Each structure stands twice: as structure tokens, then as C-alpha cells.
Amino acid sequence: CGLFKKGDQKPPPLAPPETMYNNGIDALRTNRYLLASAEFEALQQNYPYSGYVANAQLMEGYAYYLQDKYPEAVQQLDRFLLLHPTSNDAAYAFYLRALCYYEQIAEVQRDQQGTVEALDALQEVVSRFPQTAYARDAQLKIDLCRDHLAGKEMLVGRFYEQQNNYEAALNRYQRVVQDFQTTNHVPEALQRLVEVYLALGLRDEAKRAGSVLGYNYPGSKWYGYAYADLRSAHLVDAHTQAPTGPRPGVVSRALNLIF
Amino acid sequence: CSMFSPIPQPRGSLVEADDYKTLTPGTSNKNDVLDAMGSPTSHATFDDNTWIYISMVTTPRPLSFPGIRKQDVVVLKFDQGGTLTSLKTFNKHDAHYVGMEGDTTPTPGTKINIMQQILGNVGRYNPMSGMGNSAFGGSTGPMNANAGPGHGGTGNSIP
Amino acid sequence: QTISHAQTRRKAPAPRPQTGGVIQAIEVSGNDRIETSTILSYMVVQVGDPFNQDELDRSLKTLYASGLFKDVTLHRAGATLQVHVVENPVVNRISFEGNSAAKDEDLRKVIDLRSRAVFSTQTVASDRQKILQVYAEKARYAATVTPQIIKLSHNRVDVVFQINEARQTLVNKVSFVGNKAFSEARLAQVISSKEHVWYRFFSSSDEYNPERLKYDAELLRRFYLRNGYVDFNMIDATGELSPDHKSFYVTFTLHEGERYRLGKVEIRSALRHVDAKSLYKYVELFPHQWYDGTAIQHNADDMQEILQAKGNPFAVVRPEIARNPEKRIVNLLFDVGEGPRMYVERIDINGNTITQDKVIRRQMPMAEGDPYTSNDKKYTKEILEDMGYFSSASVDQSQGSAPDRVNVAANVVEKPTGEFSLGGGYSTDIGILGNASLKQHNLLGSGVDAGISGTVGYYQKQADLSVSDPYFMNRNLVAGVDIYMIQNSYQTYQSYSEGRYGITLRMGYAYNRHLSQSWNYSLVDRHVNNSFDLGYALQYGYGYEYQPSVYIRQQTGWSLLSQIGTELTYDTRDNRMRPHSGYVLHSGVDFAGAGGDEKYVRAKFDAAYYVPLDSITGSHDWTLSFKAGTGYLVDWGNGRQDVIDNFYLGGNNLRGFLDGGAGPRSAHQMINGVLVPAAGQEDLIGGRFIYTGSAQVNFPMPLAKDMGITGRYFVDAGGLAGVRVRNRYTNYKNDGANYTPISGDSVTPRVSTGVGFSWKSPFGLINIDAAIPLHRYRNDRTQVLRFGFGQQF
Fold this sequence. Notes:
Chain A is mostly helical. Chain A has helices at residues 17-29, 33-46, 53-66, 70-83, 90-103, 113-128, 133-162, 166-179, 186-200, 203-216, 221-232, 250-258. Chain B is of the alpha+beta class. Helix content of chain B is 11%, strand content 25%. In chain B, strands 1, 2, 3, 4 and 5 form a five-stranded antiparallel beta sheet that branches. Chain B contains three helices and five strands; from the N terminus they run E-H-H-E-E-E-E-H. Chain B starts with 8 loop residues before the first strand and ends in a 41-residue tail after the last helix. Chain C is of the alpha+beta class. Chain C is 15% helix and 43% strand. A 16-stranded antiparallel barrel of chain C has the order 17-18-19-20-21-22-23-24-25-26-27-31-32-34-35-36. Chain C has a four-stranded mixed beta sheet with strand order 1-3-4-2, covered by helices on one side. In chain C, a hairpin with an 8-residue loop joins strand 20 and strand 21 (478-488). Chain C is extended, with a radius of gyration of 38 Å. Chain C starts with a strand and ends with a strand. At the B-C interface, strand 1 and helix 3 of B face strand 17, strand 18, strand 20, strand 21 and strand 22 of C.
């Protein structure tokens, strides 16, 4: 085929930038992303001054995003933002860049570096383009990232408490209560604090943590567990907030005492 | 004999009775405490003027979690001006173990699917480097484990 | 008037224009690639702002700082601000010419210029420096780099770095001034840089390199301190470049001073609960020996480590010496005190994309809030590397929220922990044998070790599945299970085929950092048949002589083994994968007879001791290791006493011999001209008592240091004795036809020696061992060459 023919055959004449750009868009629609990013790449290489370069860079970033090639996508979007910071697609570019990091958030057991980067990128979207739809969605994702980080703190706290390292567990749970107040890990953190304070013999601290939990989350199952713990330490009296949440099963309480 | 005795592992702040016997409520202030005992292991959850020093010694126990051999907790309360108002100590006998709650708050997040992990290449997270290195230990290579007669897991081979 | 901002120096600004009036319009000219809106967004000045000199300067700077423009001029024409820019070209291609010592990819990694990025002369200048730095590290100080810029259409440029590498600047002469006690040749051996000689074409030790000079000065200082010259100091260590830039002359001027002996050794302790007298037993030095700086430092470090392990985490031992020049003796004082009290505030683990956080955190010697010393940092790094899950691990610390609080960050880079290995062996008797195994040391990042391995050999089929969790349910409990099926029929050297189908449950726990105990229960159904088919043999004209001996024929059929075993391990090695120092002791007892047909008790003991040779060879790669093992098996009750449970000598525990190729065997005897027994082969029947020993030196291969080849020379020895068969037919008179003498049953050791290589090749680790027996029993079976090849994914 053409590849091996020696001859003086000139490389095929270059298509004009419009057709290249349209081929790229069509390839994207028929999700042949590899072809799409190649088309946009060729366009930027050969027609650096055509009007299509800005859109080509953006679309190439989008093509990489669709191929799950997040590092290349972020690099491409950064290049677009460097050259066209004020284009009206900048909001979308920032948002897409934030999504690239957001997709890389790993499970809570693993390194949370991706979550921290996603948090910064999403924060940038919200601060630069506050009224756009992207900002609203970014805000939602920010809360989820913070919830993820709180989950990691709790995970490490539980590990230390299980290994009887109360000095380590105490600090981890306190960090969740103090730095991640808006996440839904706070009730559990307070209940764990009750457990750790009781194990350390600090009864009044345990009582105070229990009352904060009871006051803010009376209906949570965690207050149910905490209430049972405090009662077993005879720290419950008349005006302690009664739990209004589901009653914890006796079997499950006994089970986890053993393991 | 001593070979069997687990080595005690000091945990938390290394604080002993004669460290804080020089501190007297009403006169000592935060700096005296810092000089005598170092910085606190942690503050109370909702009150920064309460300092908690936790000093424990744990030892590994077979078949279970590390055992607590010594647990001393010193709680120091300060008034707004930073002078010591009360100093209380607790030890292992005050502890009241309630066991850990098994329940946990779920955290969403993309799960790495099982097949990806078994093959070791987690793809987009960290593009695996080449296949060159190998974690072979020892010098006799794979032939040593269970070749030749009389082997096969019943332990009659001397390595 | 125009305010122009030239590349390197700023012209004095023109007389200040009248600053009144407001900018009605801004005209931008000279930009092709970059849109006007982009330029306006970078400028601080907008339409409607007053003409203000500082604002104009700042917008000039911001435009320039964006790196997009070669030159920017602002010109005021009435009320419009004219901005004229000359865009920086775009880099089309970057290429290197004339480089052979450094490859293109290495250079491309070092420089900042990228194709399709913006070109600027500063980046080219800084890249030129970076390339020169790469060549300086390769000891080519005379190299020159000249960048060529080729203009292309559409304001694009190609950058070509023309490199002239020139010859390496080598060390021609090393000389010492002021050395009275030691000869120049002796000192030359101490330092690492060597004079350039023709046969050193491969090694890099004759290249001049300033860091190596400092390292050599340190080597000399330590050498003199080790030999008692307390007053030694290095006056000057210089390297002069020859005028023709081709070679270097290195001279060390030093002052030796007097040689001292060690006087009194005292200890002063400021630690609570630790009095000085109790520490004297840890002093390893004795008075009147020559003063040895390194030995004293080792002694101090060992003492510090012992104290820290005994509950004084902040203990610090500092040796202090008091010189007495007249008597030339040095009095030594170990000052035991307490270092600064530091605590860990937070431990963060980064980079674990596969391994779970708790799998790493549980290995840490300290938790958050615990005491923290520099030892812990070194020890943690060792542990992380010892896990075998990471290609690199580093521990760094940063200031915590209080002066005595430290944040520790453990940074790891994951590596594939799956293992697919193909093994092969060639032996004088069974020929080619291969096996394949698929193992994952870190299943799902949970730290569980799981493996499925199968052998597809001409004579052996075997498959086993093993799973083991080092921290079962997060406790100090190792739990594991192996299920295996083995069928081997080595016809040539063993006239029976053997089948083994079983399961082993394992459980273990650690008493402390060194001592651990494990228990295992195995339930194995074994089948032996003599697989000699007379009809088939007769077809090929063989007779009875090829059937197995009576000792094998008597144990054919199925036998069930139900065995409980325990093993105590005391392990102080520094690294499990490639031990360099320390020792490990295993002692184990297996009790067979809780049900099943076999009834025996087997005791085993083996030990390995690793001696680091750093002090002699000066490099970390030399290791001397001694291994020894012994085992004894005694029967109780009336078990089947099957031969397959005996100890076997040869193969791994005695390289140079076939697996199980040495020890008692059934034999033939010429009795008054007749070969007795007429039928039956020579079968290896193992023994009741075994002992093995091995001394091995691991050394790096001198030439191919970075190819990952390590060599080893070893001497193995071992003996196997004590016949254990169900009933012995060795009495000629009354055993009649079954009479079969047993030979090779002697405690005298078999000895072999040989060399081996392991090579971390691009497609996996290759191990080759070649050993020849020095002293062997008459008809032991040998296996000269063994090799193994492993591939990892």
C-alpha cells in the first residue's frame, strides 16, 4: 500500500482548517475520540493563526477527557486558558479541568491527593464564575470532596482506636468535629469521642461530647449508640436528651463488643 | 525468659508523676506547664483551655490487639488568663471500656474494580512503569519451593 | 514619545509625557496569533483610565511577564494608546546534534523548551546551562553547547542544540603530602578515585568529580581515626585542571599527628531509672587497644539503640574523648543523656494508589502522638522498603503545630506486586523441568498474599493455591491456607510415582519485633505406586530389573497424614528480601498422628547469620552469609513409616546434587558371582537425621554495576543418615528373595562448591547456579546446573 511506495508522491494536500475542525467535531459526536484529538492536533500544528485554534484546543481537551486521559486533558486545558483567558468558553474550560481532577478521586482507603486537587480546581470554578451553572454544580461537588476527606480522617481514627492508640484516635476525631462541621461524619465522630473519652476515664469530657451530639443530632443512630455507652457508664440522668432515633439492636451491640 | 517478653512501647506524651509535681493550681501558668511537660497530647474537644496529656505503654499481644500495660491521663484546666485552675490525674482503673461500635458512615467514591487490581495495572490512576523489576528474594529462584521428592508442604525439607 | 522595554537593559525613560487626559481608545498592533482581547486582559490599563506613568509601566511588565512577546512598546498618540507587540515565535521542533554520552531523551527531560510552546531567548539560555550541567556530571568539563535558531514561516522557529562533547577529563595523578605513617600506595587504596590507567576504560572511578573529592577526604579522615590518629586533620584537597583541559592532578595535603591508645572507659548517665553501672556490660571496647574512632561510634550507637528499645525513646549516647598527648592515651567517656523530646502530631501516607492506608499505617513503629526520634524515621523507611510493595519509599518530616510536634509524611511509589514466574531446571537425570506460578503479594491492596502456581513438567504436575493475611482482622495474627495437588513420576532416578492431595491451615503471631511463633495443621492424602508395568516393559525387552526396590514396593497405596506443627522464629535481619546484617533462627516441631496413618515426631532447627563486609570492602553490596540446619525424626506407635516423610538431601539444601540425590539408598551386591537382588532399581529412601551447612559470599559484578548482575560463591555441605523404612530386608540369610542391602547411610558430609549469578534482566530475574560436588558418596546423583527465571507484571 501507499506506505511502501518509494516514488516522489507529495504528502496529500492539507485540508483547509474548517474541514479539519468539522472532521474533529464529527469524530467527537461519533465518539471516535482518538481521531478527534488527532484532527484538532493537526489543525493547531498547521494553522496556528486560523480562527479555529481556540476552539480546537478546547475540543482537544474535551476529547482527552472523554478518553479518560486526565493528565493530558488538564495540560491541554491549561494551554487553552493561558492563551485565551477571557474567552467566553473559559468558564467551561475551568469546569472541565475541575471534572478531570474530580474523576480521579480514589476510594477513601487510598491516597486522597486527587481529592485535594479536585477541591482546589472546583473552588477556582466557584470563585471565578460565581453565577454560572458550572459554579452551582461545582459547589455540590465541593461538599462531596470535603465529605470524602472527612471519611478518610474517620477511617484512620477508627484504625487507631481499634489498635488501642487512644492518643492518636482522639486527635483524628477532634479534627473531623472541628474542621469538617458541615459533613455527615460529625455524628459518628462525636460518638467515637464518647467511646475514647470513656476508655481514657475522662467522664465529664465524654458527657459533654454526648450532650453536643444529643443537642445537634437527637434523631441520629449515633446518638442512640452514644446514649447507650453513657448509660453503661452511669452518666445519664433525668435531663439528658433521650435519643429519638432508631433503637440499636442488642445483638449488634453485643456482637461488636466481641470483635 | 526475656526473649519471649514483648518490648513495652511507650505511647503518647512521656510524662511521669514528678514532672508535674512542681505545678500548683493558682500560681503556675501555661508556660510553666509547657516547660515541665512539653506540649499537650491534645486539647479538650470544645475548650482549648483544657489540656490533656495521655501517657500509655502498650505491648503486642498474640492473637489480639495490643494490650495496655500503663495508662496515665493528666487533665489541666486553665482560666481565661492562662493560670492553672485544676490538675486531675486518671489511670487505668478509671477506664470504662465500651467496645467499638461496628457501624460506620458510608463514604461514596469511585471503587477500583477488582479485575483491575488483580492485574496490578490500575490504568488511569498511575500508569504502571515497565515490567522489568521483579521482587524475587533469595538466590535460588523459583525452583526451590516444592520440587523434588518428599516436598509439598509437609515441612520435611530444610531450606 | 515611546516607552520601549528592550530585552535586557532598559533605556532611560524619555522625558515624562504630559500625564493629563483620559485614554479614549487602545489600539493593538503587531499581534497575529494572540487575540487583541487577550492582550487587553493582560494590560492593567483599560479604556477610560487616565494616562498614568506607573499604570503604563505595570501593564508593560505584565504583558512582558506573560512570556508571549519578544518586545512591547506603548505609544501615546493624542488620546489613544497605541500598543505595538512583537510576538515570541512558537517552537516547532527541538533537536540535538553531536551528543553521544547523553541520549536525546535524557536531554529533552532536562530542558524546559517544549515543541508547540512559546519560544524565548531566556529559556534557551537556561536550557544551555542545564545541558552543560548534565555533561559536568559526566565529567566532561570541556563540553560546549551552542543553540541554533532557524526561522520558519508563520513566526515559528526550530531550535537545534549543537553539542561538542570533548574528551572526558580524567584524573591523571593522585598524590599525598604529609603522610608519614602510611605509604602512598596504601592511602591510594583507601580513596575511591583512581588514576587513569588503560584497563579502567569501563569504570567511572578515574573521572574527576568534585563531590568524589570531598568523599575521598572523608574516607581518609575515617581511615586515620580508625587507626588511632586522633589529631588528624585534612589541610587541603584540591584538583587542578591541566592547561589542555584533558586531565586533572589531585593532591591531598594532610597532618597525621600522634597515634593514641585507649585509656579508661567510663559512663555517665543523666537518664531517670538508668544508672551508669548497668550499662558497663554493653561496652565492647577494652583498655590499651589502639584508639579506633569508628568502633567507638558503633559502640555508642548500639548502646543508644538498646536504651531506646528499653522504654527510653529519647536516650542519646555521645562519646567524649579526653586526649593526653604525653602518654599518648585517650580517656573515653560515654555521656548518656536525653535528646530533645519530640512527638509525632500527624502521620500522612501519600502515593498509595493501590495499597490501603491501614496496610501501611499498621507497619509504622509509632502512632500519632507518640515519641519520635530520628531512629524511628530510618526504621520506618526500612519497614516500607521491606514490604516489597513499593518501588521507592521516603519519609520526611515537617514542623507541627507546636515546637515539639512533628508531622511525618510517608511517600511511597507503588510498583506491580503481581508475579508471573516461569521456572526451569536442567539436571543430569530428569532433563528439562518447568513451572509457572501467578502470585499477587498485595491482593486488592489489602496486604493479603495470594498465589496460584502450577507446574507443567515432563515428570511433575502440581498445582497449589495459597492465601495468607499478615494482619487477620487487624489483629496481631497471621492466618493462611494452602490447598495443593502434586503428582510426580520421576522415572529415571526414582522408580515410583507419587501423588499428594492436601490442605494446610496456618496461624501465627508476634511476641515482639523479633520473635514470632506459627502453628500449622496439614491434612494430606498421599498415594505411591510403583508404576512399573511388567507387560509394557517386556515389550521393550526390559525385565524385572526396572521395577522399584522392595522398600518402595512395600509402601505403595494410599496413606493419610494428619500433622500439627509449630515453629518459633527469632529474626533480627535488617531486610527480609535481601538480608545484609543480622541473623534468623527457626526451630520447629511437627507431630504427626492426630488421626491419619502416620505416627512420628519431627524436630527441625536452622539458622542463618549475615555478616556485612562494608568495613573490609568499603561497599554496601558485599555480604557473607552462613547457614546451618539440622533435623531429626523419631517414630512412635506403629505408623506406616513411609519413606516420603523422610528428610532428603540434595538440590536446594546441597547445591551440586540432584534433589534428594544424596543419602541412604537401596543397592545391589555381588554375592559369589550373582547380582543380588536380581530385580529392583536403586531407590533413594531419605533418612531420619539430616544436617546441612552453607557459607556464601554475595558480591557485585565489577564490570556491570548498573546492569543489576550480582554474583555469589558458595560452599555447601550436608549429611543424611538413619535408615527409616517400614521393615528392613538387609539380612542375607533369612530375608531370602527380598534381601536388598542399603548403602549411602553414613553421617560423613557430602561437600560441594560452586558459583551463581542473578541478573535483573529487562524480562525478569534470572538465577543460575553451577556447582560441582567435591566429596560425595559412591553413587550419589549430581545436578551441575540449575537455573530459574521470573517475570513480573
